[in-house]
Amino acid sequence: MKYLKYFALLLLFGNVLTGCFDDNDDVQQVSNTLDINDFIYKGMNTFYLYKSEVADLANNRFANDQEFTQFLQGFTTPEEIFGGLKTKREVTIDARQIPVDAFSFLVDDYVALEQAFDGITRNNGMEFGLVGYENDPNNVFGYVRYILPGTDAEAKGLKRGDIFNTVNGTQITRSNFRELLAPDTYSIGLATLDGDNITPLGTSISLTKVQYTENPVFIAKTIDVGGSPVGYLMYNAFTADFDTQLNAAFGQFIADGVTDLVLDLRYNGGGSVVSAIDLSSMITGQFNGDIFTTEEWNTDRQDQFGSINRFDNQVRTEEAINSLNLTRVYILTTRSSASASELVINGLDPYINVIQVGSTTRGKFQASITLYDSDNFGRRDADPGHTYAVQPLVLKSINSVGVTDYFAGFTPEIEITENFSNVGGNSNLGILGDENEPLLKAALDNILGTRSSKSYHNIQLESIGNSNMFDLNYERMYQDIDFSKAE
Q: What values do phi and psi take at 112, rounded to 5?
């Protein structure tokens, strides 16, 4: 059933869900702000991972229903109360202050959120990254990472490595990039990048977004490396609906007799925990049933949901997993590699040799679930008067040897950054899947033992954002629930 997929918590544990609150609200056709605030509060009170850090979420916070109602009336919008119920704690990493919770979010259109989980977005096909100018603290340029097939960007001839620095004739900056790139239609101004010099080409291309379903299995191929077959998989999101296609790619790797795998997660911001476990089981296979990760929920929910995730041998459709039984894997990463991508690295690391190539990952180890405005937070019987939903962080993942809280991300063994220069129309980014593409080549060099990591490009420009930042599930990791536990 659809609502199960989005983790609607159809749980039969009555008063446990609402703690000390009695929900005596009259049924209404149209919910007002107070009703929505009530739903948000009770969802956070029940499931929020960092509940113990928010005094207002304590189970004994209110003496009676009247005091609770007065509290809810103190917030004029759902967004205001949601923001007020998140932890404000920060951690210091390399002299930077990083919020403990940068990923819980509230949506006012859960239908769009559900579509995002299915890989359905409004998209013009230009997957891009945004980077700060090296010599200017304010200006930003974009570079094309890859082009989605059958899209407007493909039709307009854009390609990986193209540089743009204006949108609708306006210079992209740190303060305006979201506003400029959010509309369904806009025009980009192409440019060249030579070192730290941006030169406009005087050419603009108009792009239009339409609803699009992206297959995250972007490239799957076998490369002959010194006489040995090496699998290369570029996987751009952990999208549950495409687990069968992912498994099929590994079936082909098995048929090709691959002896090594290069897993390209450089632009993969995350997604389904189950898909991450399945992918890790495809890479290995010899650890079926062993602990992949454990989950830590808040103290109220730990006994019900604090499960152990194990390597498995079936995907969601109960199709047998195609496993390579490898003892090492090469994983390509950048700052855009987050959540479920990092879960794969952390979960595999105690078992096999994980050789990370590229740059440091995002640093995201928490997962969320979707809460709807119903008696049990499930999708079924959700209040028809609004489409608000809460996506709170509810658990943190811990690998089999206790590693978690990796706010700083994972640092690569072989450091190499992408080179955005494209002088004379020749991009230094290379062609994805081509054995001479710099990050892939660095992995293949290591397989062959032919080159030192010190010789690679390591100039790190500041990442400002990317095309996926407009998706509701951007850099999120979400978990399935075992409903048999909720009896």
A: -65, -35
- pLDDT tens for each residue of 230-250: 999 999 999 999 999 999 999
Tally of CB atoms within 10 A around 257: 10
Instruction: From 106, 102, 94, 95, select the one nearest 36 (Cα to Cα).
Output: 106
Instruction: Look up residue 233 and give its two tokens.
Output: 């998989």
Q: What is the pLDDT of residues 159-206, one digit of tens each?
A: 999 999 999 999 999 999 999 999 999 999 999 999 888 999 999 999
Residues 246, 276: contact at Cβ < 8 Å?
no
Q: Is the Cβ–Cβ distance between 278 and 247 less than 8 Å?
A: yes
Q: What is the pLDDT of residues 434-457, one digit of tens each?
A: 999 999 999 999 999 986 555 687
- Closest alpha carbon to 333 in 365, 355, 360, 352: 360
H/E element holding 41?
helix 33-47
**CA-wise closest residue to 32 among 82, 83, 77, 66:** 77
What does pTM read for this prediction?
Answer: 0.89
The helix (H) or strand (E) run that includes residue 225 is strand 217-225
Phi and psi of 208, rounded to 5°?
-130, 135
Alpha carbons 264 and 333: distance in angstroms, whole number: 7
CA distance 453 to 66: 65
Query: What would the two tokens of residue 295 be?
Result: 């989950």
DSSP 35: H
Give the Cα separation of 68 and 24 in Å (integer): 13
DSSP state of 274: H
Within 10 Å of residue 485's Cβ, how many Cβ atoms? 13
Strand partners, 391: 105
What's the N-to-C CA distance of the chain in angstroms? 19
Burial class (CB in 10 A: 0-12, 13-18, 19+), 354: buried
By the 10 Å C-beta count (0-12 exposed, 13-18 middle, 19+ buried), 486 is classed as middle
All residues at 6 or more sequence positions from 360 whose CB lies less than 8 Å from its CB, including other chains: 333, 335, 408, 409, 410, 411, 412
